[in-house]
Amino acid sequence: MARQQRLRRMTIGANRYLWRIQRLDAHYVMLRVWAESRPRRLFPLEVRLRYDDPWVNYGPIITIPPERWQELFQLEPVTPRMVREIIEAALAMEWAPCSH
User: Fold this and answer.
1) What is the pTM of this model?
2) 3-class secondary structure per residue, 7-52
3) What is the pLDDT of residues 38-63, one digit of tens each?
4) N or C: which end of the chain has fewer CB within 10 A?
């Protein structure tokens, strides 16, 4: 049985957002963000991000020289700080989930 994705909250300015991360495959995750005030998760922001899960990619990771990890793999997980930066960038590009 699939585990339920946990929703997380973030406040930026006067607006509150809900967000979650979903693994797409061994190399990518999907960040979904929407305004908490909108019903039924309308007008979501969806961003596909590279993340090479070290547990899933353990074999390939241990077979390459450590100095090449950063070149070949994105091992830093998505953090709340990254999510904030992505939301702020989307708002600067006129993503307006609260005004529809």
Assistant:
1) 0.80
2) CEEEEECCEEEEEEEEECCCCEEEEEEEECCCHHHCCCEEEEEECC
3) 776 677 899 999 988 878 777 788 78
4) N
